[in-house]
């Protein structure tokens, strides 16, 4: 049953969503109550206002939802810049801290699983699992371990198709964890493997290629192109029209200015 034994009162300051371009702060006076359950380890607890306060939180749920939504989309630096547009002043570190507190969505075992490795600075390798149908990442871990991949597949049964590269490690992990799954190679690794094989074959027969190629035919001699007639160009036609106009005007003026004998 709720406690009614008041220990003390104290004020809480809560940041809320901005109104009219101005930040909002709520000064709230709440009660600290005695716990009447003898088995409880805490002697007192703070009163919570539903929809307005959250334990150990100095922002209202409305403001917290906005920070989390922007943080999920834009992360730290971009999220902080976007929040300033809507009059919420938070640092990028605060946005990242709130982002790390957002619970992950429930993991749904995909029907088509993509397995690949990645490298940080070409030194530290990791394994990435994605849903090959939606392209969404599922999980990642450090290293390339067949046993760890097999354990993940056993904990998440239902994978029917596994897309992987030509790594022996991932083949062993998939075979051990999901023996009924069909192992295929994705388009990227198919083209990558094909290009590597073509390069190897071309390098092995590099000396034979020039001898097998026919002698290149000399290019046909190009006939000298005659220079365009200046009179046929656009500038030439324009100059000719000006010349004729000037002479016409000159003849007209001479006829009007002639004095009879």
From TrEMBL:
Residues 113-205 form the Transposase IS204/IS1001/IS1096/IS1165 DDE domain. Residues 210-235 are annotated as: Disordered. It comes from the Bacteria. Signal peptide: none annotated. Residues 213-222 have a biased composition (Pro residues). This is Transposase. It comes from Streptomyces candidus.
